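Operator note (shift B, R.M.): manual run for ABC transporter permease requested after the automated queue skipped it. Running by hand, logging everything below so the morning shift can see what happened. Input copied straight from the record, untouched. If output looks odd, do not overwrite the archive copy; leave it for review.
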Amino acid sequence: MPAEILRLRTIRTPWVLLAVAQLVIVAGATGPFANGDRTDPAIARAGAAHLGLAALFTLVLGIMAVAGEHRHRTITDTYLTQPHRGRVLADKLIVHTGAGALFGLVGAVTAIAATAVAAAATDVTVDWSDSLLWRTVAGGVAWNIAFAALGVGIGALVPNVTAAVTGALAWLALVEGVVASLVGSTVSQWLPFAAGSALGNLPTGADGLPQWGAAALLVGYVALAGAAATIVTDRRDIT
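Run finished. Output pasted below as returned.
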């Protein structure tokens, strides 16, 4: 595990993803104040909910934890250092879940600060005692954590970085939207991005699961991806 932490700290990609994620959060958090109904008491929640969108970056980070090693052909050295592949995968899952938590916490600070600045600039009074606002922030942090863990599983199942990242983002951006338009939210609410949106209270215009249900569903997705990744990793020929 120390080697995994060192690798994560010393490569450039995580820091770039973290920085870009903050820009996305700022844009999302200030958007409702610029374009929305400033008399709506939920406007601060709608802005802060964009913290959850940083989960797209933790998803990519998790994917690259495994698929990136295959791309750079360092995975063989990793397995020589630790022949138990399940342990390697577990270490990556733990470390990158922690990284997802860090992304979420940094993003939470950014979202709250951006919301406060946008509110002050537009003369909107924010009720900072609103429990739903803080549940939204907590849900956004949890969404970042869950997608980081899910990304590790996806990266282990699809060791090609380009295919894994493109496929995952295409699924979230396109496939879930198509499914929702064809069968409605009754079915689409059980899909990963919809579950994340419900967990982070991200306004989508569609009915979704309650926060606790979305959290439980994402834990199930992570467990399923992790179990499948462990089986596939143990049987994969890396020579």
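Quick read of the result: The first helix runs from residue 2 to 10. The chain is about 80% helix and 0% strand.
Leaving this for review. - R.M.
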